[in-house]
Amino acid sequence: MSKIMDAAEGIARRVFGDEALRTKAPGPDASFLGLRATAGYAKSPLQWMRYLRDTYGDVAETQVLGRPWFLVSHPDDIEWVLVKNAKKMKRDAYIDILERTLGKGLLTADGELWKRQRKLMSQAFTPKRIATYADAMTAVSDRGCHWHDGMTVDLHAEMSRVTMEVVSAVLFGTGIGAEEVRTVSEAMEVINGFYANSPEAIFKVPEWVPTPTNRSMNAAVKRIDGVLFDIIGKRRRSKEKHDDLLGTLLAAVDDDGSAMTDQQLRDEAITLFLAGHETTALTLGYTLMLVAKYPDVERRLMEELDTVLGGRLPTAEDSKNLPYTRQVLEEAMRLYPPAWTTGREVAEEIEVRGFTLPVGAQVLTSQWIVHRDPRFFPDPEAFDPDRFEKSKAKDRPKYAYFPFGGGPRVCIGNHFAMMEAILILAIAMQRYHFELLPDQELKLAPSVTLRPKKGVRAVVKHRRRKPAVVSAA
Ligand code: HEM
User: Fold this and answer.
1) Residue whose CA is at the smallest distance from ligand 1 atom 3
2) CB-count burial class (<10 Å; 0-12, 13-18, 19+) for 203
């Protein structure tokens, strides 16, 4: 019987075309190649997605520049798309624009190349390897988290500086000097700015078109390449074994014994810089902002840090014994997810809640939407780290919270990022209290990541620690 049904469907598809037969999901008028949707999305993607979900439900369909485009907003369907049907999905075309900087690194690669690279790169992100990065993270953050009493800072910019230094130290150990870190940081700022708001990025203007932005972007990538190829070359020539992330990547071999080429190592190194520093910095910046706004949370956080660390620097082991600190970070990423959407392109037709998603369609899942859904997070605007207590978290569907994406392409750096964020937050909070400048309105700039448009400004106050009691010998 099912063979007859399949044959009938095959004939119908040939006669009427796939499009006429598929069950469409509800959504706004998609005439004129979906220009209205395209304009709505371009004007304010966060508001536009919320409108789609609120008006059309958990699977909303529209067109963007003539392409079918779906917003999937129920955690079970997100799991269905990202995890259970991962094989029917591929990397989406929005990522193409990153290739200009990242080449074919893990974030931009697809198919067989991605599979090989994911396997090789995983060797640098095992729990054992990650624990070995903690000392470098702590040493750098210890030096980086220093501000004068009464100084006004932009929390996001400061956290960006610290996480940039951390990722440089973890990647290259002592193989990178202060001057080179500065070169990479400055160039990375140009690159972040390019992706955040340049028309060249939005309209994919080819890199050879000599606009001023294109020229400064090309020069920034060239400067980083100079630093990276120099470090890679020196490492290849030296006989010394290095314990840092680059050392692990240089030593990583595939089943057939082949290792990465210099170009692939360069692509992966710059990918780790870009994917690894801005996201963690945003998490920390938003966390410091929220903690400053919620004195009860700050009090409980300080109690935990005092009890577990008592003013000393944290270690990898400590990062597992600071549950409230972790919850505070998790709750900040719920409200302000640095990666606010995770997209895929349909490679093989699938059904979601009875609606057909055709080949070539764009599927978006949005952390911004789902993390603020009152069905899974009552009183969603409130900052309440207790939501992430183990006993409460287990009552939610798994994909109600997915700051690191999901399925085979889940963020490879998620445990790295959590450990790093816990260590930096513990160091900064033990030393300082941050007081937000009054009358600041937080405006969000959703581009590749969810940035605060004008930063978050705060006055730094030194904490006065009680002197330690020295026992008489
Ligand atoms: C709080 C910090 C971070 C957040 C919120 C975050 C989020 C994400 C998300 C949502 C994805 C896409 C997952 C998907 O498509 O399903 C991703 C991918 C990735 N992330 Fe992260 N990330 C963070 C930190 C890091 C760090 C520290 C590193 C490296 C040191 C890193 C490296 C990567 C890489 C290489 C990928 C591509 C993985 C692949 O396609 O196989 N991320 N990240």
Assistant:
1) 279
2) exposed
